Every structure is written in structure tokens, then in C-alpha cells.
């Protein structure tokens, strides 16, 4: 399945505990259809101190670390650049034969 959400896209979460929150896509896992959104779906991880890590890094210190976990791509929608509302994404072909993503809500070309 071709994902229509890409890295650095601005998305809104449409379901789950973080519903309504927006953020930038940090990474995309195409094999599992999951995305990591900045500041969304934060989980706590208990990390043991690592003396061989660089001094001053979170791994060297240890403790409870908060970081983003992935979300299934069906739970996010792209933010329409024109209306700032969630929108579905379509793909159309331009005059020169190039495929581009299009916001279905407003018809604005995304890339």
C-alpha cells in the first residue's frame, strides 16, 4: 500500500488518546504503515544509566525518559494548507506527466 503521508508533513491525529493534536511527521515506517508525530503519543521509558555513553547525554544519566511512539497511519490526516482542516489526500497527474499529491478538501496541490 502506498502511503500518502510523508516525512515533514503537518498532520492532525483523528482518533485515539491524542485526538485533535497536530504535529510534524518525524519518521514513516512503510512496512508497518506507522508514523511518528512530533509531540504526540508520548510514552515513558525507564532507562538504566550507561557509563560508556557520551557524558551529558540522556543515556549516560538514566532515569525515566519520555519519547514519541508510532501511530498507525489511518489515525492521522494531513492538514489542508489552505483551510488548516484535516483532509484526505489524492494523487493527480500534472500536464508534464508528474504525479503530485492534492488535498481533497480544497483541491490545493501539496507538493
Give the count of structural domains: 2
Q: What is the C-level CATH assignment of the largest domain?
A: Mainly Beta
Largest sheet: 6 strands, antiparallel
User: What shape does the CA trace take?
Assistant: elongated
What number is the mean pLDDT?
Answer: 90
| Oligomerization category of the chains in this entry | single chain
End-to-end separation in angstroms reads: 20 Å
For the largest sheet, list the strands in their spatial order: 6-3-2-1-7-8
* Rg from alpha-carbon coordinates: 18 Å
**Helical proportion, percent range:** under 10%
Total number of helices: 1
Low-confidence stretches: none
Structure classification:
mainly beta
CATH topology (fold) name of the largest domain = SH3 type barrels
| Beta-strand share of residues | 35-45%
| CATH second-level architecture of the largest domain | Roll
Amino acid at each position: 500500500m502506498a502511503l500518502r503521508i510523508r516525512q515533514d508533513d503537518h498532520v492532525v491525529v483523528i482518533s485515539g488518546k491524542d485526538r485533535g493534536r497536530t504535529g510534524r511527521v518525524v519518521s514513516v515506517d512503510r512496512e508497518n504503515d506507522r508514523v511518528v508525530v512530533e509531540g504526540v503519543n508520548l510514552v515513558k521509558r525507564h532507562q538504566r544509566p550507561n557509563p560508556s555513553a557520551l557524558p551529558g547525554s540522556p543515556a549516560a544519566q538514566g532515569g525515566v525518559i519520555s519519547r514519541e511512539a508510532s501511530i498507525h497511519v489511518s489515525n492521522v490526516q494531513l492538514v489542508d494548507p489552505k483551510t488548516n482542516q484535516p483532509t484526505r489526500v489524492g494523487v493527480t497527474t500534472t500536464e508534464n506527466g508528474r504525479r503530485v499529491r492534492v488535498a481533497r478538501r480544497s483541491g490545493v496541490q501539496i507538493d
